[in-house]
Design a protein that fits this description.
Helix content: under 10%
Number of helices: 0
Shape: elongated
Oligomer: single chain
CATH class: Mainly Beta
Strand content: over 45%
CATH superfamily: Immunoglobulins
Number of domains: 1
Largest sheet: 5 strands, mixed
Length: about 110
């Protein structure tokens, strides 16, 4: 079994009021629950079903995902730099698996 690998790309420093780009990717083998194995048994669904980005504890970007999402989901979005704080990135998987990363943002 391959362990999902989350990655993010955000600046470490931003100017107050700046709009900055965020890129988030998780390497994850998605399984839709629609395929069958060699013995014709349904392969259980296992997808990343939710992604959340929190800025200083506030949810600023939330996505609910379904079977049609591709493997290795990638998100690109923009945030407004208002204060120095922590950016938390959380991916939730069917079955209760949670993968996360944290980045500090310094606003000058």
């Amino acid at each position: 079994m391959v362990v999902p690998i989350p990655r993010v790309q955000v600046p470490s420093i931003a100017t107050k009021g700046e709009i900055f780009q965020v890129k988030a990717l998780i390497s994850h083998q998605m399984e839709t629950g629609l395929r069958h194995d060699s013995e014709d048994r349904v392969i259980q669904r296992k997808i990343i079903n939710k992604f959340v980005c929190r800025y200083s504890g506030v949810d600023v970007f939330v996505v609910d995902l379904h079977e049609a999402i591709a493997a290795n989901p990638y998100f690109e979005f923009y945030l407004h730099a208002t204060e120095s704080g922590r950016l938390d990135f959380i991916w939730e998987e069917d079955g209760g698996g949670v993968y996360s990363l944290t980045q500090q943002l310094v606003v000058t």
